[in-house]
Amino acid sequence: MEDRKAGGWLRPRFLLLAAVAPAALAAPAAAQAQAPSQPQAQPAPAAPAKSQEGKPGQSLEGVVVTGERSTLRTDIDRRSYSVAGDLQATTGSISDALRNIPSLQVDVQGNVSLRGDSNVTIMIDGKPSGMFQGEGRAAALQALPADQIERVEVLTNPSAAMNPEGSAGIINLVSKQNRKLGASGSVRANVGSDGRWNAGVSGARNNGRFTVSGDLSYRHDTQKAEIDDRRARLDGATGAFIENRQQLTSLNEIDMVFARGGLDYDPDDKTRITLQATAHVMRPTSDGFEHLETDDAAGALARVIDRVSDFEQARDRLDLSTSYRRKFAGEEHELVANLGQEFGRVERDFERATFLSLPPAPDLAEVSAYDNRTRKTELKVDYTRPMPLEAKLKAGYLLQLDDNRYEQVGRRGPAGAAPPVDPRLTYEFDYDQAINAAYATYQQPLGDGFSVLAGLRLEDVRLDLDLTTGGPVSAKNDYFRAYPSLHLQHEFGEGRQLTASYSRRVQRPTADDLNPFRVELDPFNLRAGNPNLKPQETDAFELAYQHRKGATYYLTTLYYRQSDKGITDVVQDLGNGVFLTTRENLRESRSGGLELVANGRLTPKLTYNLSGNVFWNEIDASSLGFSDKRDAFTVSGRGNLNWQVTDKDFLQLNGFVSGKRLTAQGHVQGFSMLNIGYRHKFTDKLSLVITAQDVLGTFRETQVLDTPTLQGRTRREFSLRGVYVGFTRTFGGGRQRDPGFEFGGGPPAQ
Q: Which residues contact 6 (CB under 8 A, 6 or more apart)?
């Protein structure tokens, strides 16, 4: 393993991104074509559906003019929510921002789900990021600052132009862009309770042909975690349940640096070339104490173990990309080519002391070193062309290459001596995947307010796995799939719209899901992947009606999903109080529900937005030896109240309640949170923000295990409760906008 301080992962393994020759990609273009409006490779809506924004004369995201404008945007295949005025996002992380978005839930560990399904693809500016994949995705979401995100796009039924990965849909985080002429920038700093703080600086300069921009931020978080796990296994000899108990307390700290630099060059009015580099550096540390007990068949203590551990981790990621955009004659007629490479490295060092008090035994010392290197190469070409009768054709190609390597060396032996290598803690695992995809979508207005968007995506996947130690195991999983999509839309006029959609989605197992090596979490718990997992396939249907009038917006959505070979956790009893958690394919699952969203103004200074979801889920786990079918209903909701107290003072109250979630062997109980925020504007360019998170201390999670042979309850609690105080100072760019809040919150109409 290379020393991370040597920077080996940053050495010149990057492909020559400039190899995408603009001349080779260019096509004849009319001299009157205009310069492209967006420098990033953001996923433009798959159809030029009419944007559901406010009318002229209304308030632009809260700017005090003569009216009001909602900052919720809808297109035929997505909904976009501004987070510019979410005060929790001003001082918090991406996780804090996502908790206030309809349809989304973020649990106490930072895991994101969409309408109860955790199989969500998270993108930044239209590109899937390795940072949000695998076992570190929740930590990355909790650490990444939200102050550089302008809006969140939610695609519950994406078109075939989008990546089909993620059975629940796609969450696209759209970065803030600054295209104003001249120089502009901002400086921000926030200080929180329990030693939390963050700071950042952003800047841009645009001279008409060149735009240079950059962001740099630092975030330090502290967190105390408490886990109380109680499990009981059926003893076949006595018919009684034998209990295991585990209590874990850990003190965690995380430091994160986020840096981005970009260059946009417009050689003429029809062409834009973009270069961008993004780096994420995370340094989590943790000190933990565990107490473990297990009983015998008579209910007396049989084993007592205490463990003290020290954990250090380095998570580094570098993303380099270039894009070429060429505009041709005709509206939305363009070619966009993107080439990028993403390098990631995770290094983790454990030191642990184990004290065996019952039965008495010598103390143990354990040291382990983990090293994971990932490299993703992506080439993406999209071509959009207007067609006769106001139709539009969009076609594209994607090549994605993933090369991941996992290594762990573990040593364990009697305390007081250098521990030897333990084969039960040592392995090497390689994961290689190649995806070739091609798609086409076609949108056609049909008259009388009707339009249709149809698409088809074809993908060929080649997957190779190789566990060279601790096994060995080798496996291949190659397959070809077609992913169709269909969107229908009808405009009734006066802000009323009806949409219906269908798409086929896939959830591919991650490298961690497929790695068969048994990782020892503690003396009572092991975890392993399953190299025989198959991709989950989902057919999704939706019917939605929306009505908008000024800042008032109502949305009703009925949805239904049918999934085959769903991927789920399964707990097995290995005997002697030891449990193995692995991954298996369900036979099938079904879900459906009704989602309601309402937003508007109660008084000239008081706005609201509410959303609720009634969700039904059915799991068929008969192929795993469990009961044929299990189902449950869940009710979730969230609300925001925004009060423009004075022209300079803004108060915000938001909270949510998430209902019970069904699992193959039990369920996860619901959880809730209440937050408060306050902003004071000293000037148009200087503001103070104070936020309080989880003010009632209710954000905790309980998972229940309930089968004829296994019973259990695991309670997890993370100390997210705290207060932040921060200042933001902007420079240049003229008079700054007051962002207000999404759904049309913000200053009152004048």
A: none
Identify the residue whose tokens are 């004849």.
28
Rounded Cα distance, 371 and 428, in Å = 10
Mean pLDDT of 422-434: 95
Lookup: tokens for 247: 């209590």
Going by C-alpha positions, the residue among 82, 80, 79, 75 that lies closest to residue 45 is 75
Tell me the average pLDDT of the chain.
84
Q: How far apart are CA 167 and CA 115, in angstroms?
A: 11
27-31, 280-284, 309-313, 497-501: lowest mean pLDDT where? 27-31
Tokens of residue 524, six digits: 């009572």
| Exposed/middle/buried for residue 646 (C-beta within 10 Å: 0-12, 13-18, 19+) | exposed
Q: Which of 50-54, 367-371, 423-427, 726-730 has the lowest mean pLDDT?
A: 50-54
State the average pLDDT over residues 621-650: 88
Give the tokens for residue 656: 């949510």
CA distance 246 to 231: 9
Residues paired with 694 in a beta bridge: none
Q: What percent of the chain has pLDDT over 90?
A: 60
Selection from 664, 615, 503 nearest residue 170 by Cα: 503
**Cα angle 396-402-408, degrees, rounded to a multiple of 5:** 165
Which pairing describes strands 496-507 and 479-493: parallel, antiparallel, or unpaired? antiparallel
The one-character DSSP state at 737 is P
With a CB cutoff of 8 Å and minimum separation 6, the contacts of 630 are: 618, 619, 621, 662
**Collapsed DSSP state (helix, strand, coil) of residue 357:** strand
Least confident of 167-176, 177-186, 574-583, 588-597: 177-186
Report residue 91 as tokens: 């001082």
695 three-state secondary structure: coil
Spatial neighbors of 132 by CB under 8 A, at least 6 apart, are 122, 140, 141
Tokens of 114: 């969409």
Torsion, CA 236, CA 239, CA 240, CA 245, rounded to 10: 20
Among 419, 423, 397, 393, which residue's Cα sits nearest to residue 408? Answer: 423
What the block records as the tokens of 387 is 């067609």
Cα(253)–Cα(219) distance, integer angstroms: 11
Strands lying side by side in the sheet with 519-522: 519-522, 525-527, 578-585, 567-575
Using pLDDT thresholds of 50, 70 and 90, give the confidence band for residue 179.
low
Query: Which residues contact residue 30 at a Cβ distance below 8 angstroms, ignoring those fewer than 6 apart?
Result: 328, 329, 330
pLDDT digits (tens, 9 = 90+) for 378-424: 999 999 999 999 999 999 999 999 999 999 999 999 998 899 999 99
Judge contact between 77 and 46, C-beta under 8 A.
yes
Bridge partner list, 242: 233
Distance CA 538, CA 506 (A): 6
Q: Kindly report, residue by residue over 310-360, the tens digit of the pLDDT.
A: 999 999 999 999 999 999 998 889 999 999 999 999 999 999 999 999 999
CB 610 within 8 A of CB 638: yes
- What whole-number distance in Å separates Cα of residue 294 and Cα of residue 203? 58
- What is the number of other CB atoms lying within 10 angstroms of the CB of residue 204? 23
Q: Is the pTM of this model over 0.70?
A: yes
Of 155, 177, 179, the closest CA to residue 167 belongs to 155
CA distance 372 to 526: 20
Give buried/exposed letters for 175-194 (b at 16+ CB in 10 A, else e).
Answer: bebbeeeeebbbebbbebee
Contact criterion met (CB below 8 Å) for 413 and 465:
no
Alpha-carbon distance of 78 to 103, in angstroms, equals 12
Helix (H) or strand (E) segment spanning residue 22: helix 22-25
Q: Name the DSSP letter for residue 398.
A: E
DSSP 514: H
For the record, the structure tokens of 516 come out as 């068969």
pLDDT value at 643 more than 70: yes
